UniProtKB/TrEMBL annotation:
Keywords of the record: ATP-binding, Kinase, Membrane, Nucleotide-binding, Transferase, Transmembrane, Transmembrane helix, Two-component regulatory system
Signal peptide: none
Gene Ontology terms, MF aspect: ATP binding; protein histidine kinase activity
Alphabetical list of CDD domains matching this protein: HATPase
SUPFAM superfamilies: ATPase domain of HSP90 chaperone/DNA topoisomerase II/histidine kinase (SSF55874)
Name used for this protein in its record: histidine kinase
Domain Histidine kinase residue range list: 230-449
Enzyme Commission number: 2.7.13.3
Any GO BP annotation: phosphorelay signal transduction system
Catalytic activity annotation: ATP + protein L-histidine = ADP + protein N-phospho-L-histidine
Bilayer-spanning residue ranges: 10-28, 34-51
Source species: Cryomorpha ignava
């Protein structure tokens, strides 16, 4: 609205009221009936028009503010009908609505863009109202990671998985914290960080969850490559003194052959040198054999094989060891037609390693038993479970059991379970361990599609 025009309209109407009142005052002072009547009528008329002029504009403004209150910015005010100042007022209203709609569209576009980004990232993002537990935001990654359907309140998690609820919603992680979440008898290693923020007098908690298991596997694979490179270098360093000693002995023998009178051969020195070479060579052969086993496993040749056939082969291979230790081995296969797509040679090696460990774990246990079962998990993915009733593994070393060269046995190399994990990683699967001291151990092999 043009302020000068509005002021002029107000001025004219106010002046009309003043003039009418002057006429009325003049008539009263002179006792002039015509002046009194005329002044009264003119005063009423001028006051009425001033009132209607103001009220009409306040009604228009009140109507606009009512639309703003209910966020109805789609309304269009007529710019073609009514007084000029009203049309200008409507034009201003329409401009405000158009600007707000543009801002809202831009905000919606930015929100949609942000949502798409949050849906695409592999990191789980979750936000909820601390007081009511109402979910503000949960991207697909966090639902997939936790194997949960979409839910509206965190009380759903408390009912479904109290341990996960305590870890995520009851525990405050001021710094990035590593944690292991247990879901459907499976363990998932994650990094968790969270923060609390205020918005419109409400407190919200934002939780960020990152799956680090795949990252750890990739890093571990790279570590293997670096480790093997270092070991190759060490082997070459071990060969150097053997070669030098052999060259010295050869030179002494050659000199003794060419000059038997002046260059006498000291058989004791030769014997000592050969003993050193033999001892170093045997150690080097054992060392090389261990690392060669690891280096050979770089790819898999998958084939379709029935679980029953795999179990029959394992039973035949393990029978002598089981009879020697008086351990009972049971195979549980509910679906006789279950088929695995695996490298049978490598998986047999995994099963043999795990069963041998189970045999050792059941030593000095009454009625030692090992059960091997196969089936599908809750996601429809093939699994093999090996359970024993042995002494179990203490919690403080359970996380180290798959680390290369870590062993609880005095004569162990620490290679067996590390090799098993590498083989399962090559199958795009995983090997997990659940153990309780005095109860037994369960090893789960999961094959991903």
């Amino acid at each position: 609205m043009n302020s000068n025009s509005y002021r002029f309209s107000i001025f004219i109407r106010v002046m009309a009221v003043l003039i009418s009142l002057l006429v009325l005052a003049f008539g009263v002072s002179l006792q002039n009936t015509y002046a009194i009547v005329g002044g009264s009528v003119l005063s009423l008329i001028s006051v009425y028009y001033l009132y209607r002029f103001q009220v009409k504009r306040f009604v228009e403004m009140d109507d606009f503010f009512e639309s703003v209150k209910y966020r109805d910015f789609s309304r269009w005010f007529s710019e073609e009908h009514g007084p000029a100042d009203i049309r200008r007022l409507h034009s201003g209203f329409n401009l405000v609505n158009k600007t707000i709609k543009t801002i809202d569209q831009e905000r919606q576009a930015q929100l949609l863009y942000l949502q798409k980004i949050l849906e695409m990232v592999d990191v789980g993002i979750f936000a909820y109202n601390v007081e009511t537990g109402k979910v503000l935001w949960a991207n697909d990654s966090v639902l997939k990671m936790l194997n949960f359907p979409a839910f509206k309140n965190v009380s759903f998690v408390e009912k479904r998985s109290p341990k996960i609820y305590d870890e995520l919603f009851e525990t405050y992680h001021s710094n990035t914290t590593s944690a292991t979440l247990e879901m459907n008898r499976e363990k998932l290693k994650v990094l968790i960080t969270d923060t609390v923020f205020e918005m419109e007098a409400n407190s919200f908690k934002l939780i960020v969850i990152q799956n680090i298991e795949d990252t750890l596997n990739r890093n571990e694979s790279e570590a293997w490559k670096k480790l093997l490179s270092v070991m190759t270098h060490e082997i070459m360093n071990s060969i150097a003194p053997i070669s030098s000693l052999a060259e010295t002995l050869q030179l002494n023998i050659q000199n003794s052959i060419e000059n038997p009178s002046s260059e006498k051969l000291e058989l004791e020195d030769v014997n000592a040198g050969l003993r050193s070479i033999k001892k170093r060579s045997e150690g080097l052969m054992k060392f090389a054999k261990t690392y060669r086993t690891l280096n050979k496993v770089t790819h898999v040749n998958k084939e379709r094989i029935e679980a029953s056939s795999l179990f029959s082969s394992i039973h035949a291979l393990m029978k002598p060891s089981l009879e020697e230790k008086s351990v009972e081995l049971h195979f549980d296969l509910t679906d006789q037609k279950l088929i695995f797509e695996i490298d049978s040679y490598l998986i047999e090696q995994v099963l043999i390693n795990v069963i041998l460990n189970a045999i050792d774990a059941t030593e000095n246990v009454a009625n030692p038993q090992i059960t091997v079962s196969a089936g599908l998990n809750h996601k429809g993915i093939e699994q093999i479970r090996i359970m024993d009733n042995g002494k179990g593994i203490p919690a403080e070393i359970a996380d180290s059991i798959f680390i290369p060269f870590f062993s609880t046995k005095k004569t162990g190399s620490g290679i067996g379970l590390s090799l098993c994990k590498q083989i399962m990683t090559l199958h795009e699967g995983k090997i997990q361990l659940n153990s309780e001291v005095g109860v037994g151990t369960e090893v789960v092999l999961t094959f991903r599609n």
